[in-house]
Design a protein that fits this description.
Arc Repressor Mutant, subunit A, 4 helices, 46% helix, globular
């Protein structure tokens, strides 16, 4: 299931400077994730972007999960 969903995400250096976007749009994955992190509901996102589907939102989440599962994430503790 995940691979089919991931087909909804594309990376093209000629679209949005090569950032991952939802296929066939110029809507960056990052923007959808930020909206969700700000407690904007899927329903609100779909209303704001009528070309998107629930499967597109699922693909964004799947892409994010895959991205963090294959990379080492280093957190730096800064001085306050």
């Amino acid at each position: 299931m995940g691979e089919k969903l991931l087909n909804r995400i594309e990376i093209d250096p000629n679209i949005m400077l090569g950032k991952p976007v939802i296929r066939g749009t110029r809507i960056p994955v990052e923007m959808i994730l930020r909206k969700m992190s700000q407690n904007i509901s899927v329903e609100e996102i779909l209303a704001d972007y009528p070309r998107l589907t629930r499967k597109d939102i699922q693909a964004v989440l799947e892409y994010a999960a895959e991205s963090v599962s294959v990379k080492e994430i280093r957190l730096t503790v800064g001085k306050r």
